[in-house]
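dumping the sequnces here before i forget
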Amino acid sequence: MDPDAKIDFEASLYPYQQLAGILRARVARGDWKPGKIIPSESRLVQEYGISRDTARRAIRVLVEEGLLFTVPQRGTFVRER
Amino acid sequence: MDPDAKIDFEASLYPYQQLAGILRARVARGDWKPGKIIPSESRLVQEYGISRDTARRAIRVLVEEGLLFTVPQRGTFVRER
DNA sequence: TTTCATTTGTACGTATGTATT
DNA sequence: TAATACATACGTACAAATGAA
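..and the predicted 3d for all of it:
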C-alpha cells in the first residue's frame, strides 16, 4: 500500500480499510516511530477528508493487529516491537 | 445480572455495558439456545430503547467474549459450547 | 490553583449498500 | 416487490481525563 495514497470513495474497498492500509504503510515507512504518538482522530479527519467514525474504524483495525495501542484521553501510539 | 433488567440511563455503567450484561444473562437463562439467533440490532433498539450504536457495542462485547458470533446480513447467534 | 484546549469514549440520528427472506 | 438484517459512513453532541498555560 502506498503510504501517500488518498482515500478513494469510489473504490470497492471501504474507506476505513483503505485508511488502515495507508496508516500501516506510514508506520512501516517510519513516519511515526515505536512509542510515538500518531495524529489524533480529528487530525486524520482533516487530513483524509473522512469522518471520525471512519478514522476510529481504521485505528481499531491496527490496534487489533497489535501495531498500535490507544491511551484514553491521550492518543494512539505505535507499539514497541 | 438480572436478565429482565432495563437500561438505566442514570447509572454509572454505560448503557452498552448494561445491555451486554443483560444479554449475557439471557443467554445463560436459555432465552436463546446455542446455534440459535438472537434478536436483531433493530429489535434490541426497540426493546431496550437504545440506539443501534449501543446495541452493536453490547453485541461486540459478547462476540469478543466468544459467547456470540455474527453472520453478516443474517444475524447474531449463540456460539455452541 | 484554576482555566482551557485537546483527545478519546460514548450515544444518538440518518443514509446508503448488500444480501437474505 | 417488499421487508428484514447487518456493514459502513456521514453528522452532531456531550462526558471524562489529560496536560499546558
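Strands of chain A lie at 68-71, 75-78.
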